Amino acid sequence: MARPARVPSTLLAFATIVPVLAGIAWVSVHAVRMGSADSVVHDALRSMAVWSAKRTWPDLDQWLAVRNDLAHAARLAPGDPATRDTLGVLHVQRAGTPQFMDLAHEHFAAALMLRPSSPYSWASIAMARYGLGKTDRIFEAALVNAMRLGPSEAEVQATVADLGLAVWDEVAPATRTAIEQAIGAGMRRNPMEMLQISQRRGRLEPACRHLEGNRRITEPKWLNLCARREITS
Fold first, then answer.
1. Per the domain annotation, does 229 fall within a domain?
2. Residue 213 placed within a domain
3. Distance set, CA 31 to CA 25, 74, 80, 90, 202 (Å)
4. Overall number of domains in the chain
């Protein structure tokens, strides 16, 4: 089922924190490995990192200058998925309208065709489709593939958990299994992060199931919240 095409405010807040910073870190490493148009990609990533850290949008001229440089790099190195991934992240950072998110989706899809084994690209596809209101079978497949290919990747876990909990009641059993896998892995890695994501999405139960015996949770707040969930469920 498709939601109305819009860019939710929760997605915009999320987009400036988890996938953008994760994308910047991963794309930067990948660009070094590929060696294609890496100078342009690195310059763009540095600018984008500053914008993300400040949580501000650049003015249009500055944004267009970075986009044009990346588009030129993509033409010079059409087989480099890092450049297309970076273009996708750039459009997410300015996703004030569905049109920008649609362009981000196009770039992520192009990167995925060049590198279908990337869990980050699959997670980015899911993020873009969510922003477009397309929580369909392709969106669910992207969540599943992201976890299948990157079960130990922190950013993938956070993205799948965040988006998955937003559509928890709508997804197929196989997709819910992938979401639960992301939550379980995240609870073992960084339980506070996963509890905060779950609370923000208004669905603590899947995270609470992993709370017992977790010695990294020391705040009584979470123990009490989860205990109340058990009583009322």
1. no
2. no
3. 10, 12, 8, 15, 37
4. 1
How distant is the alpha carbon of residue 22 from its chain centre? 8
Closest CA to 91 of 38, 145, 51, 120: 51
Rounded to 5°, angle at Cα 88 from 84 and 91: 140
Per-residue tokens: 49 = 């990192």
User: How many CB atoms within 10 Å of residue 189?
Assistant: 15
Is 230 within a domain? Answer: no
Q: Say if 3 falls within a structural domain.
A: no
One-letter amino acid identity for 88? G
* 3 state SS of 50: helix
- Under 8 Å between Cβ of 102 and 134: no
**CB 189 within 8 Å of CB 154:** yes
Q: Per-residue pLDDT for the chain (233 aa), expressed as one digit of tens each?
A: 444 333 333 333 334 334 444 444 445 444 444 455 678 888 888 888 888 777 777 788 989 999 999 998 898 888 888 899 999 988 988 766 778 899 999 999 999 999 999 999 999 999 999 999 999 999 999 999 999 999 999 999 999 999 999 999 999 999 999 999 999 999 999 999 999 999 999 999 999 988 877 777 877 888 888 887 653 34
Single pTM value for the model: 0.81
What is the CATH number for 116? 1.25.40.10
Spatial distance between the Cα atoms of 190 and 52, rounded to a whole number of angstroms: 22
Residue type, 215: R
